[in-house]
Design brief:
The protein is mostly beta strands and 257 residues long. 12% of the residues lie in helices and 34% in strands.
Length: 257
């Protein structure tokens, strides 16, 4: 009898967790870039034979964490050589989640920076800091942050999160094997405690609509000499030198989440 009661309680807790979770739309990565080309191009115009057929993601959240699911379809020569967290995961088959503030200080705004409508989502051109999570097909993870002052610098302008914080981000990958052509997926579970230390909204994960105070961009890439590709969910503001993802001006607020 006791075992039955415990199982019933666990099922109720799981159901409550599912009810609490808020889920956003499935978004397809619609933009692709040529390395060294200084102009943004629509998906398809810059796609090479190495570009996957389709990449999509979905975000969801509950009181405990922000969740991300990435699906990569039709990638050639899936690569997953990096085995340890903090490594050069962008040289593998890699998906990346960038999370930034929506609210920024006036002195940190770009000239003429203001909220504008773009691709059916709210886009804020003002500068802010951000946190990024880069996941290899191997399961290795790179976690970093940038302050508003350094947010337009190169990848070297970001600071790695602590080992403990990176380990607290749960991750899972699966699908077709490394070295083959095919499909794979990645999942991240980012505790709000990691984001609360760096992003301004104080009620992250505690109120309906709290994620409207955050902005996102999602990337998929394989940065190697032969067979490279670079994709983003939302357009990266130019001018830029190559596929420069570290630009919070390109982040978008997912108001439907």
């Amino acid at each position: 009898m006791m075992k039955y009661v415990m199982m019933q309680q666990e099922e109720e807790e799981e159901d409550n967790s599912r009810r609490r979770r808020r889920t956003g739309p499935v978004v397809t990565l619609a933009h692709s870039y040529d390395q060294g080309n200084h102009n943004n191009k629509e998906f398809g115009e810059a796609a090479s034979s190495s570009t996957p057929n389709e990449v999509s993601f979905r975000l969801s959240c509950d009181d405990d964490a922000l969740y991300a699911r990435f699906d990569v379809k039709g990638e050639k020569n899936i690569k997953g050589c990096v085995k340890e967290d903090g490594g050069e995961v962008w040289t593998d088959s890699c998906v990346e989640l960038f999370v930034g503030d929506k609210v920024v200080q006036p002195e940190q705004a770009n000239e003429g920076g203001s909220d504008v409508e773009d691709e059916g989502h709210r886009r804020d051109r003002k500068r802010s800091g951000y946190v990024h999570f880069e996941l290899s097909r191997s399961g290795a993870l790179l976690c970093g942050e940038a302050s508003p002052a350094s947010s337009r610098l190169s990848h070297g302008g970001t600071k790695s999160l602590s080992t403990e914080e990176c380990e607290s981000v749960k991750r899972r990958t699966g699908g077709d094997d490394v070295g083959s052509d095919g499909d794979w997926f990645g999942e991240l579970e980012v505790p709000w405690t990691v984001l609360r230390k760096r992003l301004r909204p104080a009620t992250l994960g505690k109120e309906e609509g709290a994620l409207n105070d955050l902005r996102f961009n999602v990337y998929c890439l394989k940065d190697i000499p032969q067979g490279a590709f670079y994709m983003s969910a939302y357009r990266i503001p130019g001018p830029y030198e190559g596929p420069f993802f570290h630009q919070p001006e390109g982040f978008v607020a997912l108001v439907a989440l």
